[in-house]
Amino acid sequence: MADGKQHRYEVQTTWTGNTGEGTSHYRAYKRDHEIAGREKSIAIPGSSDPVFRGDRSRYNPEELLVGAVSACHMLWMLHLCADAGIVVTDYTDQASGVMLEKPDGSGHFTEVILHPHLTITDPSRVGDVEALHHRAHEFCAIANSMNFKVECQPSTVAQS
After folding, report:
1. What is the CATH number of the domain that holds 111?
2. Exposed (0-12), middle (13-18) or buried (19+): which is 49, by Cβ within 10 Å?
3. Given the DSSP bridges, would you call strands 116-120 and 88-93 parallel, antiparallel or unpaired?
4. 3-state DSSP call for residue 51?
5. Are both 45 and 80 inside the same structural domain?
6. Residue 76 backbone phi and psi in degrees, to 5
7. Which of 39, 47, 80, 155 is most exposed by smallest CB count within 10 Å?
8. Residue 89 sits in which domain range?
9. pLDDT for 28-82, tens place per residue?
């Protein structure tokens, strides 16, 4: 291990899509599953993307990956703003990701773009918030683990 502390994260993924025939053929089963963590009160209902015979009412792995990048950036931004004395009163991010599917069915992400929108209390600190997005990106372990571009296109407004 390199210098630093090591943290381990564990989840249990359970397939719940057996309709009675198991995987006897491609259309015989649902892609439904649940992702649960130790000491968590609820499980995340998952499936595959509807394009791949999944249930659109459940989260797919691709959405969860984009969500993980977005949430990590947000948590770092809130931390850095608090440390800098910047009061954030609202934070939303309309994050998006692009996955390239190859002819053989395999695929990979080519980018994730974050669109964080923050509301702060002090109009004179808007420029400071914009600068903190770069630091948050440097600290985000999820973004730093990706082998594709993670871009941030932030906007910040002051409360009126």
Report:
1. 3.30.300.20
2. middle
3. antiparallel
4. helix
5. no
6. -65, -40
7. 39
8. 61-158
9. 999 999 999 999 999 999 999 999 999 999 999 999 999 999 999 999 999 999 9
132 shares a domain with 80: yes
DSSP code of 95? -
d(CA 121, CA 99): 37
Are the beta carbons of 31 and 14 closer than 8 angstroms? no
Question: Is there a domain that residue 86 lies in?
Answer: yes
Share of the chain above pLDDT 90, in %: 84
Burial readout 121-160 (b: 16 or more C-beta within 10 A, e: otherwise): eeeebeebbeebbeebbebbebbeebeeebebebebeeee
Q: Report DSSP letters for 72-109, one per residue.
A: HHHHHHHHHHHHTT--EEEEEE--EEEEEEPTTS-EEE
How is residue 13 written in tokens? 């993924």
pTM across the whole model = 0.88
Looking at residue 69, its pLDDT comes to 96
The answer on 67 and 35 residing in a single domain is: no
- Pick the closest to residue 142 from 112, 120, 110, 117 (CA basis): 112
Write out the two tokens for 114: 């974050």
My answer on whether 66 and 45 are in the same domain is: no
Is the residue at 85 inside a domain?
yes
